[in-house]
Amino acid sequence: MSDTLPFYGEVRVLRASDGPDLEGKLGGILGITDPPDDATPPAYGVLIDGEEEVYTFLREEIEPTGHMRKREDYY
Q1: Which residues lie closer than 8 Å to 45 by C-beta, 6 or more apart?
Q2: DSSP 27-59
């Protein structure tokens, strides 16, 4: 899938059905699911800045900022 976002890519949360307070916040992609087929889009594990929990989002719920973060920022 060509629209897959990269690991450590910075994203902004557009929609968060489980946590509307996360909308508009920035974070980094720390996980990407491996879909079982081409019809299933990947989901993204995003560590939101200032949070300790990784949240899961679909592609349409987040937007890339164009910035890349580093592995060292997280590990």
Answers
A1: 29, 30, 31, 32, 54, 55, 56
A2: EEEEEE---SSTTSPPEEEEEETT-SSEEEEEG
In this predicted model, what pLDDT tens digit does every residue of 29-66 receive, in sequence order?
999 999 999 999 999 999 999 999 999 999 999 999 99
- Please tell me the total number of residues recorded for the chain in this structure: 75
Tell me the sheet residues that pair with 47: 28, 54
Per-residue tokens: 34: 């491996």
Phi and psi, residue 42, nearest 5°: -70, 155
Strand partners, 48: 27
Residue 8 in 3-state DSSP?
Answer: coil
Class of domain 9-73: mainly beta
